[in-house]
Write a structure and sequence with these properties.
The protein is of the alpha+beta class. It is built from 15 helices and 14 strands.
Length: about 400
Amino acid sequence: MTQMLKLALRNLGRNRRRSFFSALAMGVALALLLLMASVLKGEYGNAIDLAIRLQSGHLQIRSESYDEVKNSLKWENLIENPEQVAAKVASLGPVVAAATPRLYASGFVTTRDNSDPVRVVGIDPLSPANQPYLEGMQQGQFLTPDDREGLLLGSTLAHRLGLASGDRVSLSVNTSDGAVDEQPFTVRGIYSTGTAAFDGSTVFLPLAKAQAFTRAGDRASTIFVMLSDTNQTAKVIAALQAPGYKVLTWQELNELIVQTEGLAGGYMSFFYLIVLGIAGTVIINTQIMSVYERTREIGILAAIGMRGRQLMSIFLAESGLLAVGGILLGLAIGGAVVMYFTRYGLPLKVENFGVTGMLLANKIYTQLTIKDAVTLTLMTFVVTLLAGLYPAVMASRMEPVAALRAEK
């Protein structure tokens, strides 16, 4: 075996430039796959994290008849006395990080020159569930529970409408009785979550003001629940079961993201093989050229007693060495690129993608797992060996006499 490797290494050294570029082709392919896998993992992981923190929480409690698509404000579809329900959830102990009522309504923000459709969210300004918005404050100040004239705008929406903290706007909302009400508000502050879709469509009001504005009374659309230990989710759900209410998990609330991640993983496996297959043609070409260049040498080796199986082993060993070289180059190149984007992020113009139903951040921070790295490395090695199989078989089946008569 050692002798075969020495022969294979010597043969590759005969044309070092060709061997290097062949290995480099596989290395670039592996680096590209590592980057793609890390971008996919980072984006979907970030999309789930954003969806949980900004929109769904780990759990939500709703009325059984509530329809989220319609942002229903009918009293029979809302939770009555939501503060009491939230307090009951919070009483389950440290496993519950936050439990707060939220009221959702559809509306329009109107300025002198423009108007935009928005989702109006009534929140308890003192709840720790609002931490992502507090941390993202860019202008002005956060809401207070007794504020009756202020609202918060996302930075994308504020930029689109040309608004700043302190400006006056009109807000129209659908009410519980099916009418439309309009009132003037002052922009108390502008926040950014780093998510253009969310920041461009969400307006916050204090819960009490949102309830009065929409004529919802002492009711809320949902109880937004954040958990400190997601391993206890099943126990929390069991404790919250009650007639007239339904408890939804983040997987149910973000079904599109979960399904998309599963489908993307399957499709990407085929794409990985296509990329490696294209790079593998370089190995096939290199080895076939090597066979033709060494036809007389192959004939001499066969004439002195080397079997076809041994000749095949030499060429497969060459392919294996090219695979190892390509893998080392790929891990070095891919690792450096992934590390860069893990630290600094990959800028993403979300508005150019036309994606709906998912929250995508303005930057993708790559995440490369050991499992993905090992899987792609093994795939690269196997594809390179398979690419070298045909030239190896071709060399092993050469007739010694015909090979010796070949022209130099």
